[in-house]
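in:
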């Protein structure tokens, strides 16, 4: 019967759950899968989430379908290990997220009015989340911001939390002034202090840059991903122009590559 389920392409999530159960079977499963635990699988989970975001950024919908499947597999993997250890099951995970979504959307699933602004709905959402944190004995404003988030994204979320309780600069100009201050401290550390102090001051500057993004309504992680993509595209353009000249980056001067960089930028702007 189990084999029938595994080969039944119409069986949906039950098929995937059975596949994972079989992979983790201590007697007949896959040796690699049996050896894994929450800690060893967590990096794959993060990687798959980024691959989903990458497929979306590229507007590659067939690839997105596959990447969403890979990400779903990660949830199933963790749920199977949770069931084996007696912590939770896939069904309890589903029940928990369903209950959370219903509780957090009383204007859809309850008797509250839907006639609210987007800002009011966000405010209500945060109030509900704050009550949930209080119920979990997470009393601090910064409690619950996951340590495992990418550092830039975590900085952004920490600052959003602090701003909700009034710990924030009143306007963007104050943030920019702080950036100038932190940049000066970084230069001073570079010139007079050691590598540990330089790293600390660099971190402070990055933290304030994330805060500037929040004040400007720019999510810094997404902005940096876009900048990375733009740099990759433009540098590939430089390499292509060099190749047309029979040259490589290694065999070129900085001045040559900088001139080609400007040409690639100009072409990109002209085609926009």
């Amino acid at each position: 019967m189990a084999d029938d389920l595994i080969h039944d392409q119409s069986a949906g999530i039950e098929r995937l759950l059975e596949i994972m159960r079989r992979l983790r079977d201590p007697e007949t499963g896959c040796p690699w899968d049996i050896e894994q635990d929450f800690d060893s699988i967590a990096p794959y989970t993060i990687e798959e989430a980024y691959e989903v975001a990458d497929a979306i950024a590229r507007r590659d919908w067939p690839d997105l379908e596959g990447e969403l499947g890979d990400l779903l597999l990660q949830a199933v993997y963790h749920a199977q290990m949770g069931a084996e250890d007696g912590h939770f099951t896939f069904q309890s995970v589903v029940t928990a997220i369903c209950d959370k979504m219903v509780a957090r959307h009383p204007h859809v699933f309850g008797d509250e009015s839907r006639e609210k602004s987007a800002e009011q709905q966000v405010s209500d959402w945060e109030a509900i989340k704050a009550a949930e944190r209080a119920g979990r004995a997470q009393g601090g404003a910064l409690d619950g911001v996951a340590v495992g988030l990418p550092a830039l994204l975590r900085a952004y979320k920490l600052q959003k939390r602090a701003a909700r309780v009034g710990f924030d600069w009143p306007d963007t100009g104050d943030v920019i002034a702080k950036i100038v201050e932190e940049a000066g401290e970084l230069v001073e550390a570079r010139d007079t202090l050691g590598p540990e102090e330089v790293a600390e001051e660099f971190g402070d500057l990055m933290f304030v840059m994330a805060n500037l993004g929040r004040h400007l309504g720019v999510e810094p992680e997404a902005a940096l991903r876009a900048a990375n993509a733009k740099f990759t595209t433009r540098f590939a353009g430089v390499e292509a122009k060099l190749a047309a000249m029979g040259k490589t980056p290694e065999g070129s001067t900085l001045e040559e590559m900088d001139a080609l960089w400007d040409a690639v930028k100009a072409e990109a702007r002209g085609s926009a």
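note: The radius of gyration is 25 Å.
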